[in-house]
Amino acid sequence: MTLVSEEVYEKKILDKVIDRLVDGVAKVIDKFKPGWSVKNRSKIDEWKLMFYAFNRSPPGLIGAALILGFIAIGIFGPYFAPYSYRLFLFIEHEETYLVPPGSTIVSKGETFYFPLGTDKYGRDLLSLILYGARVSLVVSMIVIALGVPLGIVLGLVAGYFGGKIDEIIMRITDTFLAFPALILAIAFAAVLPERLRPMIIYNEQLKTLLSIFFAADPRDAANFAPILSVILAIIIVWWPGYTRIIRGSVLSVRENLYVEAARALGVSTWKILTKHILPNVISPVLVLITLDVGAVILVEAGLSFLGLGAQDPMIDWGKIVFDGAQYFPDRWWLVLFPGLATFLAVLGWNLVGDTLRDVLDPKTRRSIEFKVKKKKLAATSEDGGASQ
Amino acid sequence: MLALHRKIGGMVVKISKTFINDDRENLLEVKGLRIWYPIRKFLSIVGYVKAVDGVSFSVKKGEIFGVVGESGCGKTTLGKGILRLLKPTSGHIYFEGKDVARIKGKKLKWYRRVTGIVQQDPYGAMPPFMPVKTILEEPLKIHGVSKEERKERVIKALEEVKLTPPEDFLNKYPHMLSGGQLQRVAIARAFILKPKLVVADEPVSMLDASVRVETLMLFKELQKKHKVSVIYITHDFSTSKYFSDRISVMYAGHIVELGPARKVMSDSKHPYTSHLIKVIPDPDPKNRFVFKETLPGEPPSLANPPPGCRLSPRCPYVMNICKEKEPPMIRVSQEQYVKCWLYARK
Question: Distance (Å) from the C-alpha of residue A382 to the closest C-alpha of chain B?
Answer without folding.
Answer: 11
